[in-house]
Amino acid sequence: MATRSQTAAVLLAGALALAACGSGGSGKSNGGGSTAQGGGRTLVIDTSFDLKTADPGRTYEPTGLIIGKAAYETLLTFEGSDVTKPVPALAESYELSEDGKVLTLKLKKGATFADGSPVTADDVVFSLTRVRDMKGTPSFLLDGVEVAKTDDSTITLTSKQANPALPYILPNPALGILNSKLAKSHGATADSQDKAEQYLNSSSAGSGPYQIESFNVSSQVVLKKNDKYYGTKPFYDKVVIRNVEAATQKLNVQRGDSQVALNLSGDQVTGMPASLSVKKTASANVIFLFANQDSGISKTTPNAKFVEAVRKGVDYAGLLELAGEGATQTPGVIPSQLLGALGADQATKRDVAGAKAALAASGLSNPTVKLEYPSELTVNGLSFQPLAERIQANLKEVGITVDLQPAPVTTALDNYRNGKEEMGLWYWGPDYPDPSDYLAFLPGKTVGLRAGWKDGADKAASAAGDKAAAAVGEDARKQAYADLQKQLNASSPFVPLIQPSQNIVTATSVTGLEYHPVWTVDVADLAGK
Amino acid sequence: MSAMTSAKETADAAPRVRRRRGAHPLARFLFRRILTAVLLAWGITLVTFVLTNLVPGDPVTANLGQRALGDPAIVAQWRAEHGLDKPLWEQYALHLGGLVQGDFGVSQQSHRPVAEDLAQFVPATLELAGAAIAVSLVLGVAFGVVAALRRDRLPDHVLRVLSLIGISVPTFWLALVAFYVFFYRLQITPGSGRVDPAIGEAPAVTGLQTVDALIAGRWDVFVSAVGHLITPALVLALYTIGLLTRFTRSAVLEVLGQDYVRAARAKGLPGRVILFRYVLRSALVPVITVAGLAFGSLLSGTVLVEAIFAWPGIGQYAYKSATTLDLPAVMGVGLVVGVVYLVINLIVDVLYGVIDPRVRLQ
């Protein structure tokens, strides 16, 4: 018996030793866990990756745009978070012709790529034509735009129709300027035969303040400072962007393991300690409801009075409560940051009696409709599920029975895209911060068709759209887009709901953070104390 | 259990084979198993292909932006680029033809060859799962033996409760709680990922961070890598530890009551010899069957653990591939996991022969 217990004791001791050994090791590595050691200042940003590539010509995902913004420069850019006015970047000035068709840009002198070679007009022509003709996701940004070099420092962009949105499109990091010689030597071409993506994923060929040190599409991207950057040098020597799930992001930033967390929901940012600052900004994503106008899809939803009942029946304030602090109601389809957005005073208010009256006038009695939405999708940390449930409850009060039909996003998107949803709950983020992006909501256009709103279905809306598209000059455009949205609120199948809040948590040591509707965050703007 | 019977069948056939051809029975056994494994692997490719194509949803919608989706030229170009414009049978034939040459296709999300992606992510998971397997074997068997030797006394009760917890607590929840308690509250473990971002990774040679750190002579990376490995590996191992404790306990108890153990004890052999040569050797046979199966389930656990600890392994890759309908990647992961299962089963069968001579000599 004695020997048996000895053996057991040895085994147990071994197990304990192993465990002790384990915690010893972790303790040590924790000691080395601070940032800013050895090789200079390091910034760690945690985000839920939405990333496919670091090739600007193929980039269209939020995480990709953060990287693109850091590694490449565009002709024009935006100052801070203000997207109403494009400012010079690689181009020192720009001028739009009176008919809105020709945009002339003067290149800045002295701009250089990371290898020291100058940024030339040829690089610009190559980069922009490549995006347009490679037929990648962002190629629509330059659809029908002719790029030409007039002299060594002048570029003209010519569109067939008035294109006053172009200066607002050019800051998109997808239109970053490549070092064409370097890119071509690694297989870049200005058509769909392009083979440069692998190279551009491993090292960047831009003139931005950072370069890509390592790139892993599902775990982390490391940016290092571009030592030859000709502009103001960024503060951090190294920026590590990690793919971290939201709950873990919260603990990492609270513990100081990371300095920035990008994807926390309204609930997750409540009660943060004083050592962290929380920036809550209404995002530019607009969540909206639509009622399909195609009588082949539904006998109920094409009824104009039914849409009115829905519009008046939704409790917008209640939805905002769900979305948390920082969220805002969207008066029209255009988000608050953009030119032409409607003022908060023009927002639709809940009117249950009005909704009931509209429903009575529709001739429908106790209608039942299916509401489809992406079940697992979150926009700025806000899930669609509670929103859909709240809308269901709101409309029940009015007398409309809503049958909730959640589906995984890839499945739901299929139905949505093909215009097969009776009612849908979706969101639209601006492809570029110009109101013309929202012409997609018109009859016969991308989003309009998804709501079964065919070309010619609403002459007044189409006319207002044409007027807005043709308007040139800030004031004229502002007015035209405001008019368009009022028209859409009166007769379209779309009910704009809210812009959820983008919550960014940073260590208080990090300064200079601005939420940007296009690239979320410009890492070169960040500094430390 | 099927592994056991097949091993026995082979063992039955073995003496005759040896007489007839002179081939070593183990070689013959391995040959047959590998042949079956190849057939099974082919079956896996077929099943994953059919399943991934059966799920509703169009990969195009998962991969292109809303604007790009509105442009038929871009959609057509994307389909052609990924071979989705071809009929299904042709897609499968191409896929299989590529596999034979080691080409898994190109991932739609990373735009890289799936083989390259796998080569990058599999080592990270192997490191995590390997650590978990080592820990669970050592602790699971040790706990089981201790519980059996101390039957119905305090250590037994404690270990049985612990193993019950290990088996019943969901890995996902445990990972969250462990991260919260050890990283955030107690501050004794490092955060997510494989190494500290400020230290940086060692140059990839094997893909195993701890090994690469040693190769590069980077002691700081090694310490950081081991530290980052501990919590996720323990979380992952807990289920297997619980399972192995229970099975080892009952197996050891059964053997302890056997006449030959009593005889050994009666003739005065030291307890150590009795435990290792008599008891453990017989008790391990059923334990190995369970261990083999448990390690298979450990792989599915990595999907959840990797998500919580931001561990850049095949679990995260599989999850992302599945949610974005990245068919080549899903099929690649399916095949790799399937092959791992096959290999583990093969090892279990071979170990039978090593541990229990009766399997060979019958």
From TrEMBL, chain A:
<keyword id="KW-0813">Transport</keyword>
<feature type="region of interest" description="Disordered">
    <location>
        <begin position="188"/>
        <end position="207"/>
    </location>
</feature>
<dbReference type="InterPro" id="IPR000914">
    <property type="entry name" value="SBP_5_dom"/>
</dbReference>
<dbReference type="InterPro" id="IPR030678">
    <property type="entry name" value="Peptide/Ni-bd"/>
</dbReference>
<protein>
    <submittedName>
        <fullName>Peptide/nickel transport system substrate-binding protein</fullName>
    </submittedName>
</protein>
<dbReference type="InterPro" id="IPR039424">
    <property type="entry name" value="SBP_5"/>
</dbReference>
<comment type="similarity">
    <text>Belongs to the bacterial solute-binding protein 5 family.</text>
</comment>
<feature type="signal peptide">
    <location>
        <begin position="1"/>
        <end position="19"/>
    </location>
</feature>
<dbReference type="Pfam" id="PF00496">
    <property type="entry name" value="SBP_bac_5"/>
</dbReference>
<keyword id="KW-0732">Signal</keyword>
<feature type="domain" description="Solute-binding protein family 5">
    <location>
        <begin position="85"/>
        <end position="443"/>
    </location>
</feature>
